[in-house]
Amino acid sequence: MTAEDGPVMCPICNKGRITKRMEPITFRQMSDKGLVHCRVTILVGTCDSCRAKSIDDEKALDQAFKREYDKLP
């Protein structure tokens, strides 16, 4: 087990521990074709103390945007 596999302290509150799980995310982003509505399920870290959320995989958000953008006329 490496240090990355163990619990991580929250950088916001410095009290809680970050746990990660798959969560569905929906978001909108403006583009030259108008507003693009996106949905993706990604790994999200959540602090068990302050409930702050963090996303490690921004590439998945970019891919979801591109997928939905390409569907627009």
Low-confidence region ranges: none
Q: Tally the helices: what do you get? A: 1
Mean pLDDT: 90
Named at the architecture level, the CATH assignment is: Roll
Q: How many discrete structural domains?
A: 1
What is the succession of H and E elements? EEEEH
Shape: elongated
CATH overall fold name:
Ubiquitin-like (UB roll)
Helix content percent band = 10-25%
Structural class, from secondary structure content?
alpha+beta
How many strands? Answer: 4
SS strand fraction: over 45%
Strand order of the largest sheet: 1-2-3-4
Specify the biggest β-sheet.
4 strands, antiparallel
Would you mind describing this structure in some detail?
This protein has one helix spanning 58-71, and strands at 8-9, 17-31, 34-47, 53-55. By secondary structure, the chain is α+β, with helices and mostly antiparallel strands. A 4-stranded antiparallel sheet has the order 1-2-3-4, covered by helices on one side. The model has no long low-confidence stretch (mean pLDDT 90).
Helices and strands in order:
Elements: E1 8-9, E2 17-31, E3 34-47, E4 53-55, H1 58-71
Antiparallel strand pairs: 1-2, 2-3, 3-4
Name some characteristics of this structure.
alpha+beta, 1 helix, 47% strand, 4-stranded antiparallel β-sheet, 73 residues, Ubiquitin-like (UB roll), elongated, single chain
Concise structural overview:
The chain has one helix and four strands, in the order ββββα. It has one helix spanning 58-71; strands at residues 8-9, 17-31, 34-47, 53-55.
